[in-house]
Amino acid sequence: MAQNEGRVAGKKAFISGGAQGLGAAAARRLAEEGAKVSLADINLEGATKTAAEINAAFGEGTAFAFPLDVTKEEQWIYALEEADEAMGGISVLVNNAGISIGGDIEHLSFDDWKKVMSVNVDSVFLGTKHALKYLRQNQPGSIVNISSIAGLIAAHNSPSYNASKAAVWLLSKGIGLHCAKQKLDIRSNSIHPTFIDTPILDPLRQMFGKEEAESKLARQVPLGRIGEPLDIANAVLYLASDESRFMTGAELKLDGGISAM
Questions:
Q1: Into which family does the record put it (predicted)?
Q2: Which residues are catalytic?
Q3: Rounded to the nearest 5°, which phi and psi values hold at 251?
Q4: Using H for helix, E for strand and C for coil, what is the string for 26-56?
Protein backbone atom coordinates (compact mmCIF):
# COMPACT_ATOMS: atom_id res chain seq x y z
CA MET A 1 0.00 0.00 0.00
CA ALA A 2 1.35 3.42 -0.92
CA GLN A 3 2.18 5.74 1.95
CA ASN A 4 -0.52 8.26 0.90
CA GLU A 5 -3.29 5.65 1.11
CA GLY A 6 -4.97 3.94 3.99
CA ARG A 7 -6.98 4.67 7.13
CA VAL A 8 -4.15 6.59 8.81
CA ALA A 9 -2.48 8.09 5.75
CA GLY A 10 -0.35 11.04 6.80
CA LYS A 11 -0.36 10.12 10.49
CA LYS A 12 2.96 10.00 12.35
CA ALA A 13 2.97 7.66 15.33
CA PHE A 14 5.38 7.33 18.24
CA ILE A 15 5.13 3.93 19.95
CA SER A 16 6.84 3.04 23.22
CA GLY A 17 7.76 -0.59 23.73
CA GLY A 18 7.83 -0.98 19.97
CA ALA A 19 10.44 -3.72 19.69
CA GLN A 20 8.09 -6.66 20.09
CA GLY A 21 4.65 -7.80 21.16
CA LEU A 22 1.76 -5.35 21.01
CA GLY A 23 3.97 -2.38 20.14
CA ALA A 24 5.48 -4.07 17.11
CA ALA A 25 2.08 -5.35 15.96
CA ALA A 26 0.58 -1.86 16.26
CA ALA A 27 3.49 -0.36 14.34
CA ARG A 28 3.06 -2.84 11.48
CA ARG A 29 -0.69 -2.28 11.32
CA LEU A 30 -0.38 1.51 11.31
CA ALA A 31 2.31 1.36 8.63
CA GLU A 32 0.13 -0.95 6.57
CA GLU A 33 -2.58 1.71 6.62
CA GLY A 34 -0.33 4.60 5.58
CA ALA A 35 1.29 5.98 8.75
CA LYS A 36 4.90 6.67 9.54
CA VAL A 37 5.97 5.04 12.80
CA SER A 38 8.73 5.54 15.35
CA LEU A 39 9.50 2.54 17.53
CA ALA A 40 11.07 3.46 20.86
CA ASP A 41 12.33 0.79 23.21
CA ILE A 42 14.98 0.03 25.81
CA ASN A 43 15.72 -2.89 23.47
CA LEU A 44 17.08 -0.77 20.63
CA GLU A 45 18.33 -3.80 18.69
CA GLY A 46 14.83 -5.27 18.65
CA ALA A 47 13.24 -1.96 17.71
CA THR A 48 15.75 -1.47 14.89
CA LYS A 49 15.03 -4.98 13.57
CA THR A 50 11.27 -4.40 13.62
CA ALA A 51 11.66 -1.01 11.93
CA ALA A 52 13.79 -2.61 9.21
CA GLU A 53 11.13 -5.24 8.59
CA ILE A 54 8.46 -2.55 8.29
CA ASN A 55 10.60 -0.53 5.88
CA ALA A 56 11.21 -3.62 3.77
CA ALA A 57 7.46 -4.20 3.55
CA PHE A 58 6.20 -0.63 3.12
CA GLY A 59 9.13 1.43 1.87
CA GLU A 60 12.21 3.10 3.30
CA GLY A 61 11.38 6.01 5.57
CA THR A 62 8.21 4.43 6.93
CA ALA A 63 9.68 3.30 10.26
CA PHE A 64 12.37 4.57 12.60
CA ALA A 65 13.85 3.23 15.83
CA PHE A 66 15.05 5.09 18.92
CA PRO A 67 16.39 4.07 22.34
CA LEU A 68 14.03 4.74 25.24
CA ASP A 69 13.92 3.79 28.90
CA VAL A 70 10.36 4.92 29.60
CA THR A 71 11.14 5.64 33.26
CA LYS A 72 13.71 8.34 32.35
CA GLU A 73 12.34 11.80 31.58
CA GLU A 74 15.43 12.94 29.68
CA GLN A 75 15.19 9.92 27.37
CA TRP A 76 11.57 10.73 26.54
CA ILE A 77 12.56 14.29 25.66
CA TYR A 78 15.37 13.06 23.40
CA ALA A 79 13.41 10.27 21.68
CA LEU A 80 10.39 12.45 20.95
CA GLU A 81 12.57 15.22 19.53
CA GLU A 82 14.41 12.77 17.30
CA ALA A 83 11.18 11.12 16.14
CA ASP A 84 9.60 14.49 15.39
CA GLU A 85 12.55 15.38 13.19
CA ALA A 86 12.65 11.98 11.48
CA MET A 87 8.93 11.79 10.68
CA GLY A 88 8.25 15.49 10.20
CA GLY A 89 5.94 15.62 13.20
CA ILE A 90 4.09 13.44 15.72
CA SER A 91 0.31 13.14 15.59
CA VAL A 92 -0.21 9.84 17.43
CA LEU A 93 1.28 8.69 20.73
CA VAL A 94 0.92 5.04 21.71
CA ASN A 95 1.95 4.46 25.32
CA ASN A 96 2.45 0.72 25.11
CA ALA A 97 5.47 -0.14 27.26
CA GLY A 98 4.56 -2.23 30.29
CA ILE A 99 5.70 -5.02 32.60
CA SER A 100 4.14 -7.38 35.12
CA ILE A 101 5.71 -8.75 38.31
CA GLY A 102 3.71 -11.26 40.32
CA GLY A 103 3.35 -11.51 44.08
CA ASP A 104 0.50 -10.90 46.49
CA ILE A 105 0.32 -7.89 48.80
CA GLU A 106 2.35 -9.64 51.53
CA HIS A 107 5.09 -11.05 49.33
CA LEU A 108 5.62 -8.45 46.59
CA SER A 109 8.71 -6.40 47.38
CA PHE A 110 8.47 -2.63 47.57
CA ASP A 111 11.19 -2.38 44.91
CA ASP A 112 9.14 -4.52 42.52
CA TRP A 113 6.02 -2.45 43.29
CA LYS A 114 7.88 0.75 42.42
CA LYS A 115 9.37 -0.78 39.27
CA VAL A 116 5.96 -1.80 37.90
CA MET A 117 4.42 1.58 38.74
CA SER A 118 7.35 3.41 37.15
CA VAL A 119 7.27 1.48 33.88
CA ASN A 120 3.49 1.24 33.58
CA VAL A 121 2.31 4.59 34.95
CA ASP A 122 5.20 7.06 35.05
CA SER A 123 5.82 6.29 31.39
CA VAL A 124 2.31 7.39 30.41
CA PHE A 125 2.68 10.59 32.43
CA LEU A 126 6.11 11.40 30.99
CA GLY A 127 5.25 10.38 27.43
CA THR A 128 2.08 12.42 27.33
CA LYS A 129 3.57 15.42 29.13
CA HIS A 130 6.35 15.77 26.58
CA ALA A 131 4.52 14.54 23.47
CA LEU A 132 1.73 17.11 23.75
CA LYS A 133 4.17 19.74 22.51
CA TYR A 134 4.35 17.90 19.19
CA LEU A 135 0.73 16.74 19.07
CA ARG A 136 -0.38 20.38 19.36
CA GLN A 137 1.54 21.12 16.17
CA ASN A 138 0.04 18.16 14.28
CA GLN A 139 -3.67 18.17 15.06
CA PRO A 140 -5.87 16.19 14.91
CA GLY A 141 -3.96 14.05 17.37
CA SER A 142 -4.59 10.87 19.29
CA ILE A 143 -3.12 9.39 22.47
CA VAL A 144 -3.62 5.65 22.83
CA ASN A 145 -2.73 4.14 26.20
CA ILE A 146 -2.44 0.37 26.59
CA SER A 147 -4.01 -0.50 29.92
CA SER A 148 -5.39 -3.97 30.67
CA ILE A 149 -8.57 -5.71 31.73
CA ALA A 150 -6.55 -6.14 34.94
CA GLY A 151 -7.00 -2.39 35.41
CA LEU A 152 -10.75 -2.95 35.71
CA ILE A 153 -10.93 -6.39 37.36
CA ALA A 154 -8.69 -7.28 40.32
CA ALA A 155 -6.88 -10.48 41.20
CA HIS A 156 -5.49 -11.72 44.51
CA ASN A 157 -1.89 -12.02 43.33
CA SER A 158 -1.13 -8.98 41.16
CA PRO A 159 -1.59 -5.80 43.19
CA SER A 160 1.09 -3.82 41.36
CA TYR A 161 -0.21 -4.72 37.91
CA ASN A 162 -3.86 -4.10 38.90
CA ALA A 163 -3.06 -0.75 40.47
CA SER A 164 -0.79 0.41 37.65
CA LYS A 165 -3.23 -0.45 34.88
CA ALA A 166 -6.14 1.10 36.79
CA ALA A 167 -4.04 4.26 37.04
CA VAL A 168 -3.48 4.24 33.27
CA TRP A 169 -7.25 3.92 32.79
CA LEU A 170 -8.13 7.02 34.80
CA LEU A 171 -5.07 8.96 33.69
CA SER A 172 -6.23 8.46 30.10
CA LYS A 173 -9.57 10.04 30.95
CA GLY A 174 -7.94 12.99 32.70
CA ILE A 175 -5.69 13.60 29.72
CA GLY A 176 -8.69 13.54 27.38
CA LEU A 177 -10.51 16.08 29.52
CA HIS A 178 -7.42 18.29 29.74
CA CYS A 179 -7.07 18.39 25.96
CA ALA A 180 -10.77 19.10 25.51
CA LYS A 181 -10.60 21.90 28.08
CA GLN A 182 -7.67 23.39 26.17
CA LYS A 183 -9.77 23.27 22.96
CA LEU A 184 -7.25 20.91 21.39
CA ASP A 185 -8.24 18.40 18.73
CA ILE A 186 -6.30 15.73 20.61
CA ARG A 187 -8.07 12.69 22.00
CA SER A 188 -6.98 10.25 24.72
CA ASN A 189 -8.35 6.73 25.15
CA SER A 190 -7.28 3.45 26.71
CA ILE A 191 -7.29 -0.15 25.50
CA HIS A 192 -7.89 -3.02 27.93
CA PRO A 193 -6.74 -6.41 26.63
CA THR A 194 -6.96 -9.73 28.40
CA PHE A 195 -4.36 -12.48 27.83
CA ILE A 196 -2.65 -11.87 24.50
CA ASP A 197 -0.06 -14.07 22.76
CA THR A 198 2.99 -11.91 23.52
CA PRO A 199 6.22 -12.37 25.50
CA ILE A 200 4.45 -11.18 28.68
CA LEU A 201 3.04 -14.73 28.90
CA ASP A 202 6.48 -16.35 28.72
CA PRO A 203 6.87 -16.87 32.51
CA LEU A 204 3.66 -18.93 32.52
CA ARG A 205 4.76 -20.86 29.45
CA GLN A 206 8.05 -21.68 31.15
CA MET A 207 6.22 -22.80 34.29
CA PHE A 208 3.55 -25.03 32.68
CA GLY A 209 4.68 -25.50 29.09
CA LYS A 210 3.24 -23.53 26.17
CA GLU A 211 0.19 -25.69 25.47
CA GLU A 212 -0.91 -26.10 29.08
CA ALA A 213 -0.27 -22.46 29.98
CA GLU A 214 -2.32 -21.14 27.07
CA SER A 215 -5.05 -23.70 27.75
CA LYS A 216 -5.28 -22.55 31.39
CA LEU A 217 -5.64 -18.93 30.28
CA ALA A 218 -8.13 -19.72 27.52
CA ARG A 219 -10.43 -21.46 30.01
CA GLN A 220 -10.87 -18.12 31.79
CA VAL A 221 -12.05 -16.38 28.60
CA PRO A 222 -15.69 -16.80 27.53
CA LEU A 223 -14.64 -16.92 23.87
CA GLY A 224 -12.37 -19.84 24.78
CA ARG A 225 -9.07 -18.53 23.47
CA ILE A 226 -6.35 -16.01 24.18
CA GLY A 227 -6.06 -12.97 21.96
CA GLU A 228 -3.65 -12.25 19.13
CA PRO A 229 -1.50 -9.09 18.86
CA LEU A 230 -3.44 -8.15 15.72
CA ASP A 231 -6.64 -7.93 17.79
CA ILE A 232 -5.08 -5.10 19.78
CA ALA A 233 -3.30 -3.56 16.80
CA ASN A 234 -6.65 -3.14 15.05
CA ALA A 235 -7.96 -1.24 18.08
CA VAL A 236 -4.88 0.99 18.06
CA LEU A 237 -5.52 1.64 14.37
CA TYR A 238 -9.11 2.67 15.05
CA LEU A 239 -8.16 5.03 17.87
CA ALA A 240 -5.28 6.52 15.87
CA SER A 241 -7.52 7.16 12.88
CA ASP A 242 -10.04 9.94 12.37
CA GLU A 243 -12.74 7.27 12.42
CA SER A 244 -12.74 7.66 16.21
CA ARG A 245 -12.72 11.48 16.13
CA PHE A 246 -15.65 11.76 18.59
CA MET A 247 -14.16 9.31 21.09
CA THR A 248 -12.11 10.59 24.02
CA GLY A 249 -11.78 9.67 27.68
CA ALA A 250 -13.13 6.24 26.82
CA GLU A 251 -11.93 2.66 27.01
CA LEU A 252 -12.02 -0.31 24.65
CA LYS A 253 -12.28 -3.67 26.41
CA LEU A 254 -10.79 -6.45 24.29
CA ASP A 255 -11.17 -9.26 26.78
CA GLY A 256 -13.05 -12.07 25.07
CA GLY A 257 -16.02 -11.40 27.34
CA ILE A 258 -14.32 -11.65 30.75
CA SER A 259 -15.68 -8.33 32.01
CA ALA A 260 -19.21 -9.34 31.00
CA MET A 261 -19.32 -12.11 33.59
A1: Belongs to the short-chain dehydrogenases/reductases (SDR) family.
A2: 161
A3: -135, 145
A4: HHHHHHHCCCEEEEEECCHHHHHHHHHHHHH
**Any domain includes 140:** yes
Contact yes or no for 196/228 (Cβ under 8 A): yes
Q: Find out whether 17 and 39 touch, Cβ atoms under 8 Å.
A: no
Q: Is residue 5 part of a domain?
A: no
Tell me the C-alpha distance between 233 and 38, whole Å. 15
- The total domain count for the chain is 1
174-227 per-position pLDDT tens digit? 999 999 999 999 999 999 999 999 888 888 899 999 999 999 999 999 999 999
Is this model's pTM higher than 0.85 or not?
yes
Task: Check: CB of residue 22 under 8 Å from CB of residue 147.
Answer: no
CATH, residue 203: 3.40.50.720
pLDDT tens digits along 106-162:
999 999 999 999 999 999 999 999 999 999 999 999 999 999 999 999 999 999 999
d(CA 207, CA 202): 9
The helix/strand count (H/E) of the chain reads as 9, 7
7 lies in a domain?
no
Alpha helices, H only, 35-138: 44-58, 73-87, 110-117, 123-136
Which is it for the CA torsion 236, 238, 239, 240, positive or negative?
Answer: positive
